[in-house]
Design brief:
about 10% strand, 18 helices, elongated, 5-stranded antiparallel beta sheet, 3-stranded antiparallel beta sheet
Length: about 625
Amino acid sequence: MSEETVVDLDVNSAIAAVEKVAEGFAAGLHARFSALSELPNEWANLLNSISAASTSRLHLFAAVLTVVVLTAGTLLVLERQSKIRNAARGVLRRIVMDAAAAGVALAVGLIAARLLEPSGLPLRTLRLWAVVTVIVYGVLWLTRFILMATRRPEVRHRSFHMLALSRDLSIAVSWAIVGIALVATLQIWSAGPGLRDLTRTVLMAVPIYLLLAGVVWRHRRTMASAVAGPPPRSHWRNKLARRWPAIIIAFLVVTFISSQAALTLGTPLPGSAVMVTVLMLLLTPHLDAMIANWAKRKLEADHISVPAAAARQTARFAILIGTVAMVSTLWATPLAMGLGFQLRSVTREAFEITVIALLAAFLWNVIGTVTSRALQGVHPALAPDNDALDAPRSRLGTIVPLISGVGKSSILALALLSVLISFGVNVWPLITGLSVFGLAIGFGSQTLVKDVVSGLFFLIDDAFRFGEYIETSGAKGTVEKISIRSVSLRNSRGSIATVPYGQIGKIQNFSRDWAIEKLTFRVAFDTDVDLVRKLFKKIGQDIAANPELAPDLIEPFKSKGIGDVEDGTLIIKASFTARPGKQSMIRRTVLMAVQSAFRENGIKAVSKPMTANAEPEAAG
């Protein structure tokens, strides 16, 4: 079979699948409108079913209301008592007590349901509403807990914007859950499809989505602030925060269309699954902030193992994966069913991808945790003062980030290959192609290979580190970035020079161990040299006693005696030893002290005579 024939078959199959979906959608839409015309008959049949169960509409409504009031009242009373008794207790104890209160209230509701209706469909209905009442309480409690968990306990009662968001969101969520329970009640009584469709769409879906969109728009600044998080904030996070309310509203519109399309195709999505997905997306920024605060606690403590710390950090990614999985399921399920795909295979592949993503995130965080602990105490970013931020790093602080970057890149590559394998893609041709391509690059780009190999040996020799001031054959400056093939140097004027390792040549490192600063002073020939020596000694002692300069001083400033006699001028030399990169401040202090001492003791400095081949030099 020729290639053109195969392409034609694929196109025809795709067109046939689209036509099948269109025909199914049209048939489903016609069935929905036809069912609406049967509403009077379905309503009459529902009333007959209620009468056949030896009850009436008013009696059933009063029984449902009684069960709901008893269950909710028990919950409120027990919650109030728990809040009073456990106000000073921990969060976990309060959660346990609230869960126990929900259990007791559910038991009260079920007992009341059994007393009001001993058996049959009325009992099932009352039990449903008892359970729904507890679920409403649990969802509202969880929503408020997540929204307020990011606020400090002492300011939670003053977080008016967050309290208003919690209130408005609770109204929309309560309406949604009550609507889902109403549809379930109609199913218990075997109501017709038209009545269920009308309830699901007109009384539940449309008002709920309008309420949720209104909540998002009204509290858009509060939600954007939650997405942005605490400062400092990255540029992309600020952009996401500004667009987050629009993203949520667009998601609500797409969700409404998707759920209605699934209902038309005859594969309605469970209302509870849709509601949980929407609610989770709304609460994801707040839940992420809550878990981030929890993950940061005691991560550097010795008693917390690396896997435990990585698991805490992976919990944030798990929330993101869960949200994406729910959204994907919501959108992909009706499409997969409509196109004839097996839902079980789609679910299995989604589960495999989720496991791969979580495992990759866990390994990524393991490397990050090991890196941060290895650099603890030596990485300048961990230091509180600004001077330490510019200080040279240790050899460990230079090598470990590079190894961490390689490890994380390898994990990302393996994860992508694993995802392709889960989709049934043969990755061996891809791996072979990349190997051949890499080999071709190796032979065709000898300069690149030279740069990489030279950089490897420079790092092995510990020729330079982050934050050190070096000079190469082509540039000089502070090492600001070390990549796999080049080093970036920032000079004193702020410009950055990127030097490939193969072009570095000889390296002069001005930031290792110590630096000797030598000074030369030209004075009159009749100057008392012994007085100068004493003055220099006194200056050296004063600087050594200076708390700001002493930590950077290794050997004090002292005179080296007469170094030379030139044209009737004494050339007196002096020096001091300081930490590399810290000698400039000490040098300025020494020069100011020498100038003051010479002036007070009548010692005259002599300028260097002008010559044809020399520039004028300031004395001292």
